[in-house]
Design a protein that fits this description.
The chain is of the alpha+beta class and about 190 residues long. The chain has two domains: about 80 residues; about 90 residues, Alpha-Beta Plaits (2-Layer Sandwich). The protein is about 55% helix and about 20% strand. The protein has four helices and five strands; from the N terminus they run H-H-H-E-E-E-H-E-E. Strands 1, 2, 3, 4 and 5 form a five-stranded antiparallel sheet that branches. Strand 4 and strand 5 form a beta hairpin. The longest helix has about 80 residues. The protein is rod-shaped, with a radius of gyration of 45 Å. About 10% of the residues are buried. This is Fimbrial protein. Keywords: Membrane, Transmembrane, Transmembrane helix.
Length: about 190
C-alpha cells in the first residue's frame, strides 16, 4: 500500500504496469463519460426531436393525402348541392312574379269551387338571407274542396307553405266551411 502512495503523477511512465493500466482504464471511462454527456446525449435528444417531427409530418401528409383523395367526391357533392340550390332558387318568386303568383292562387281556388273573402300580401319579414312573404287567405267552401285547394297549392311551381290553419262552419246548419290560413313564400334578398 505504501507503494501506491509514493507514486508521483509526473513519473507515470516509470510506474509499475498495474497502476499504469488502472489509470488508463480510469481515463478511458472519464473520456467516455464526458463524450457521452457532451456529445452523444445531445445527439440522442436531437434524434428524438427529429423522430417526433417525422411522426407529426407523417400524420400531416396522411391527412392531406386523405383530403386530396376525397376531393373528387367533394366536388361531386358540391355540384349536386349547386344543382339543388339552383332548383330551389328557381322555385322562389322574384318581385315581379308576386302579382301573377297571387292570381295563380286565386285561379286554383276558383277551380276548386271556393269563394275568396280575402287574399292579400302581409308585411314582408326580413330573415338572414331571404324574405318571408306572408299571404293572408280567407275563403269559404266544402271540406273536400278546401283539401283539393291545399293540395293544389303544394303543386304550384313556387314554394308556398301553409301555417296557422283555422276552419269553422259558416253556420251550425251549413256544411260550408270558413277557411283561414297564413301562406308563406320566400324570396332571396338579391331577387327584389
Amino acid at each position: 500500500m505504501s507503494d501506491w502512495r509514493d507514486l508521483e503523477l509526473d513519473e507515470i511512465t516509470e510506474w509499475p504496469l498495474l497502476p499504469q493500466l488502472l489509470v488508463i482504464v480510469i481515463l478511458c471511462f472519464v473520456v467516455q463519460g464526458m463524450g457521452y454527456w457532451f456529445w452523444i446525449k445531445p445527439m440522442i435528444q436531437d434524434i428524438e426531436q427529429l423522430k417526433q417531427k417525422e411522426l407529426s409530418l407523417k400524420s400531416t401528409v396522411k391527412y392531406k393525402y386523405n383530403q386530396v383523395a376525397a376531393m373528387p367526391k367533394m366536388e361531386n357533392q358540391l355540384n349536386e348541392l349547386n344543382l339543388r340550390y339552383e332548383f330551389l332558387a328557381q322555385q322562389l318568386p322574384a318581385q315581379k312574379e308576386l302579382a301573377s303568383m297571387l292570381s295563380g292562387i286565386n285561379q286554383v281556388g276558383i277551380q276548386n269551387k271556393l269563394t275568396f273573402t280575402r287574399i292579400d300580401w302581409g308585411e314582408r319579414q326580413n330573415k338572414a338571407f331571404l324574405y318571408k312573404l306572408p299571404l293572408n287567405i280567407e275563403l269559404t267552401g266544402q271540406y273536400h274542396d278546401i283539401g283539393s285547394f291545399s293540395e293544389a297549392m303544394a303543386d304550384l311551381p313556387r314554394i308556398v307553405s301553409l301555417e296557422n290553419i283555422d276552419m269553422q262552419r259558416v253556420s251550425t246548419e251549413s256544411s260550408t266551411l270558413h277557411f283561414r290560413v297564413m301562406a308563406y313564400t320566400y324570396q332571396f334578398k338579391g331577387k327584389e
